[in-house]
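Why should sequence recovery work at all? Because a backbone constrains its sequence more than one might expect. Tight turns favour small or flexible residues, buried strands favour hydrophobic ones, and helices have their own preferences. The token representation captures these environments compactly. In the example below, the structure is given first.
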């Protein structure tokens, strides 16, 4: 039997089905519940970063309004997939003609990524919304509110979605790993939040990919992302700065060979380390080294050999690090 997508992808499998299941976003959930109770609502505008529950909230709302068979009263369109406003208009027209549910006087259209539409297309959309307002309510979802034209903003009730808090994300991940009976380290779940900063979809996707390593550890999380653990990059940089060039080079080889990281990944992380306020070096040395990092990155992108370029950079770190650090003693 072919598995359904919601059985394969945890982000789908664990998508809350009802408003009560939604994690946090309390104010939003309360307002939406009122619409369900009154069986009435205006057009809605959901704005906020990816993976914070906009689509989920729209689906849970229609589920609670119409029950398990909500699908016949619900049309989901993606503004960036569908070819232009004409397709949207004709699909909405067709949908508006279908039967309305007995106990709720309207059906719902969810238009995802509405901020990808041009201003002209949004004007046309606004007319379509007005034309079918008798039988249909629109929920527009977007990442950037500023890209939605004023006439649409003023005709919709705005719901702002914010990134989920660390505690909410970690608890949700915990719930999933327990349910899936996978081994995990608590620190790994926290690391996932530190990387995704409240994007629940991304958090769950990383969790699932890391689980494929048998146990969800910090190391597995970094592997999934194709990133070395910051600690290893930091160690390499510090060894080089102390003039321990051969040891730093050994670390570099481990990152390239064992981790299978690309030169581009490594140079980006070296950049992060050298700009971090945790690294205690003088401004002068920092500026000098970052200049070399820029040059190395450029050469790597242009196709020069990763290992040779990064080794040359470590040599610069060793030469100048040693000089500046001993000068300051
Ligand atoms: N508040 C939440 N509670 C529980 N799970 C959530 C929540 N928000 C998001 N998720 C999880 O993340 C997945 C993605 O969420 P959703 O599709 O709602 O994001 P979105 O805000 O619509 O993102 P995009 O802007 O990328 O479309 C869901 O399938 C669900 O598993």
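From this structural description, the recovered sequence reads:
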């Amino acid at each position: 039997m072919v598995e359904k997508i919601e059985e394969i992808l945890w982000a789908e499998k664990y998508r809350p089905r009802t408003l009560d299941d939604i994690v946090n976003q309390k104010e939003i959930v309360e307002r939406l519940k009122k619409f369900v109770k009154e069986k009435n609502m205006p057009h809605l505008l959901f704005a906020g970063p990816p993976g914070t529950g906009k689509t989920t909230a729209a689906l849970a709302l229609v589920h609670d309004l119409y029950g398990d068979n909500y699908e016949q009263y619900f049309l989901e369109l993606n503004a960036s997939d569908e070819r232009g406003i004409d397709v949207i208009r004709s699909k909405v027209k067709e949908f508006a003609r279908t039967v309305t549910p007995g106990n709720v006087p309207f059906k719902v259209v969810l238009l995802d990524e509405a901020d990808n539409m041009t201003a002209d297309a949004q004007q046309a959309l606004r007319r379509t919304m007005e034309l079918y307002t008798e039988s249909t309510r629109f929920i527009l979802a977007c990442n950037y509110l500023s890209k939605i034209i004023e006439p649409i903003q003023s005709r919709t009730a705005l719901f702002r979605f914010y990134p989920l808090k660390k505690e909410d994300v970690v608890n949700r991940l915990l719930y999933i790993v327990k349910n899936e009976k996978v081994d995990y380290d608590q620190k790994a779940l926290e690391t996932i939040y530190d990387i995704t900063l409240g994007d629940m979809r991304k958090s769950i996707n990383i969790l699932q990919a890391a689980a494929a390593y048998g146990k969800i550890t910090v190391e597995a999380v970094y592997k999934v992302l194709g990133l070395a653990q910051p600690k290893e990059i930091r160690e390499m940089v510090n060894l080089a700065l102390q003039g321990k060039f051969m040891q730093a080079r050994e670390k570099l080889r481990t990152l390239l060979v064992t981790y299978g990281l690309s030169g581009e990944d490594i140079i980006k992380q070296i950049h992060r380390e050298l700009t971090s306020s945790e690294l205690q070096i003088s401004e002068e040395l920092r500026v000098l080294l970052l200049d070399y990092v820029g040059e190395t990155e450029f050469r790597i992108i242009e196709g020069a050999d990763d290992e040779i370029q990064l080794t040359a950079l470590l040599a610069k770190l060793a030469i100048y690090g040693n000089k500046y650090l001993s000068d300051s003693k």
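A few observations help interpret the result. The chain has a mean pLDDT of 90.
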